[in-house]
Specification:
The protein is mainly alpha-helical. It is built from 6 helices and 2 strands, in the order αααααββα. Helices cover about 65% and strands about 5% of the residues. A hairpin with a 2-residue loop joins β1 (about 105) and β2. The longest helix is centred in the middle third of the chain and has 23 residues, at about 55-75. The two termini are about 30 Å apart. The mean pLDDT is about 85.
Length: about 140
Amino acid sequence: MGREIVTSQQNRLGQATLPDEYKDKLIKLIPTEIVTAYVTIVGLISGTTTGNKTDLLWFVIAVLTIVTPLYLKFVSKVKLLSQIIFTMVAFLLWVLATGSPIPTIFDFQSTFIGSILLILYTLFIPFVFPNDPPSP
């Protein structure tokens, strides 16, 4: 299974055998490598006793946000711009959900808000990458 989402249009044009189902699309929209790097780096940063952790976290978030589309395009060979954009958004939601330098949003913990947004994002994806209805 490649990383790029296979669409119904690609199937009709003979570029793919079967379009991806919802769960396959969802898996392909989770930037697992980038999220793993972020969580690991956050763990390393939280274990230090020196330096400005907040500034370092913002730097890491910025670098990984820039790396995400490059990684998808050049390593995973993803060509769909919409997939690249939504995967970048997913990374930022994972940052909020797993711990970010933003302590609170609207008086709530950022991880709480991030988790809610991540759930809504997961529910929203089928509308962005819909499957065609079956032919009569």
